[in-house]
Amino acid sequence: MKLISPYLLFLGNAPDQLAAKSAQGIVDWRPELARGQLRLPGCAADVGLPDMSLRDASAQGVKTLIIGIANAGGFLPEAWTGILVSALEAGLDVASGLHARLEDVPEIRAAAAHYNRRLIDIRTAAQNLPVGTGQPRTGHRMLTVGTDCSVGKMYATLAVEAEMKRRGIPALFCATGQTGIFIAGSGVPVDAVAADFISGAIEQLTPDNPNGHWDLVEGQGSLFHPSFAGVSLGLLHGAQAEALILCHEPTRTHMRGLPQQPLPSLSICVEANLEAARLTCPHVRCVGVAVNTSHIAQDKVQVILDQIEDELAIPAVDPFASGAGRLVDALLAP
Amino acid sequence: MKLISPYLLFLGNAPDQLAAKSAQGIVDWRPELARGQLRLPGCAADVGLPDMSLRDASAQGVKTLIIGIANAGGFLPEAWTGILVSALEAGLDVASGLHARLEDVPEIRAAAAHYNRRLIDIRTAAQNLPVGTGQPRTGHRMLTVGTDCSVGKMYATLAVEAEMKRRGIPALFCATGQTGIFIAGSGVPVDAVAADFISGAIEQLTPDNPNGHWDLVEGQGSLFHPSFAGVSLGLLHGAQAEALILCHEPTRTHMRGLPQQPLPSLSICVEANLEAARLTCPHVRCVGVAVNTSHIAQDKVQVILDQIEDELAIPAVDPFASGAGRLVDALLAP
Question: Does the distance separating the beta carbons of A195 and B194 come in below 8 Å?
Answer without folding.
Answer: yes
